[in-house]
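ARCHIVE CARD
Drawer: 12
Card no.: 0347
Subject: one protein chain, sequence and derived structure
Cross-reference: see card 0346
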Amino acid sequence: MRIDRELLEVILSIKNMGELEHFFDEIFTPAELSDLSLRWKLLKDLHAGMTQRKIAEKYGISLCKITRGSKVLKKNGSITLKMLDSKN
């Protein structure tokens, strides 16, 4: 399933960090927010050079979840990689 374009436009239109956080709290469950935050943290750790095994230990997650993130960072034209590079 692809994400709804209207939802992306709504998210893009929210310029205030507090409002964005409140919006996410309203539309996502605590578990969904936790999963989303974890995905970002493991991507940041991969980008910083941490091994997949270290990340698995750090967060208590499977290597499969981390491998998916690794593939995202290796993909040609990865927006995630671009965002992480820009934070450095």
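Annotation on reverse: The chain has a mean pLDDT of 95. Residues 5-86 form a domain with the Trp Operon Repressor; Chain A fold (CATH 1.10.1270).
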